[in-house]
């Protein structure tokens, strides 16, 4: 009997078994290495994951089964863990490392024994490192955030690419007030923002502006200790800047405080807003849906009090605990991080990339992708800031999102006071994680 994926809730997940030979995973009765990835079933990204698995099977002879799940991914992993049926491999966000490690789902990786590990970016390796200094994953994909902007709108309103936050505000105001789509109606916004609280989106979005201003959520103090930084003036200034966009200049798309990224992608595609601070994973999609001549990618301007900086994140290959095929896990992780695996995951300029920026120094991104807009994301990665290796980042991101969302939704809210209260909450959270 094959591994059950918790009944009807998972029947929509993409599960593809590939031919080959190998030994079985932790809860499987067949001999396929089971690989979970947080992507929508039947999406272009899920199909790229299957191509990656096929390449691995061809190179190693080890059969694989790819399961793509997007909604409630971590919850479904929790359910599998409760049944002691974790998959062999999980490709998931770097920010989930602390949460997965705290729950005992992942096993330690010996960096020195990862074939080709010396070819991987040290910045990416840091995102595979826990607060104890040990490694719990193999880097797979990296990304930095930048501004995807309606170039045709910017040219229509006669403005240059923004070099400062004031410039960015003026561009957003022009997109809101000057009818950049030329339809004679006041139906466009400057910013499109996934400002809801689901999965911590409000703080996730705000983080690039916080880092661009030299602020932070927490700072490392050495020895696995961390201190909250959300009350720092640089952090407060960034959140205040964004509240001003919601409340003073009113340059944000309506309903943003309830939106996640799925909705926000569509808002941008429908021409309801013209500035989207986002990762490179939507570039190919927007090129196709909006038009390649209508969009450009611009770096996040340095803030008035610090920077430059932007959010850095990506995906790791996690070797899950309890697998009876640890050798197969290791081989897959090495293949995924190898030049061959990275090239498959990049998917050239087409939609469906699961490797946004390659982590392997032997891969020339310019040789794989002809779209020069990728270069902006690559250059932004040089000053990208990853989520810190606290034992569990998830509650810190979520608590921050709840506070930040509230001050964007309530224009009478005092940002400085709210961030001071958040500082108290994060300090308590760090203490509860024994990380202060």
Structural class: alpha/beta
**Whole-number radius of gyration?**
22 Å
Residue windows where pLDDT falls under 50 for at least 5 positions: 1-29
Q: What's the overall average pLDDT, rounded?
A: 92
Number of strands: 14
- Please estimate the helix content: 25-40%
As a percent range, the share of strand residues is 15-25%
Please report the distance between the alpha carbons of the first and last residues.
47 Å
Major sheet attributes: 8 strands, mixed
Summed up, the helix count is 16
| Gross geometry | globular
Would you list the SSEs in sequence order as H and E?
Answer: EEHEHEHHEEHHEHEEHHEHEEHHEHHEHH
Word description of this protein:
It is built from 16 helices and 14 strands. The protein has helices spanning 44-60, 73-82, 97-102, 122-126, 151-156, 165-177, 201-212, 233-247, 261-269, 283-291, 326-337, 339-346, 365-368, 374-380, 394-409, 415-432; strands at 14-17, 33-37, 64-68, 89-93, 138-144, 146-150, 189-191, 218-222, 225-228, 273-278, 295-298, 310-319, 357-358, 384-385. Strands 1, 2, 3, 4, 5, 12, 13 and 14 form an eight-stranded mixed beta sheet that branches. Helix 1 (44-60) links the parallel strand 2 and strand 3 (64-68). Helix 1 (44-60) packs antiparallel against helix 12 and helix 8 packs across helix 15 (394-409). The longest helix is centred in the last third of the chain and has 18 residues, at 415-432.
